[in-house]
Amino acid sequence: MGRIRFFAILLLAFVGATSASANTLVSTNPISGSTLSVSPTNVTVTGQIALLADAPDAHSITVTDPKGVRVDDGTIFIDQMSATVGIRALVESGTYTVVYSLSSEGDAALEGSFTFKYLAPSVIATANPTPEPSQSQTPASSSWGTNLFIIFLLVIAALVTVALSLYARKLFKDR
Which domain holds residue 84? Predict the structure, then answer.
């Protein structure tokens, strides 16, 4: 009976240890389920375990618009535990789907999907800058009072320095 209990505990510990090393999703950018009013420039998926940086073909991130057309540029950048894919400027409102499959060393691929909503601006207006003449700036005037105060402080500092050096000389002579 004791052996069976020992092997059952050992089996549970082994199964628990192997599942603890499984790569799981930590975060996404844009956040899963979020609503954006500004078109993102990329999509990032972050896992718990470092991804294989030297095997770019082992990873895939696909971003599709509401009609199912791909809007990602296909270039995936791996930075330790995160994978980022660039996307073109979004112009259509709706739900965008991100499907990912990322490989990490000695572990099953991190696979899944998430969605985010994009609300495109109703009218995109181009800015027409209108040049306006700049006003000439007047030079800052110097105040004689301030200048005299600074000169006074410099003279006082010089006198204090001379007095301290004479006092120090007297102290060293008296030793």
Answer: 22-118
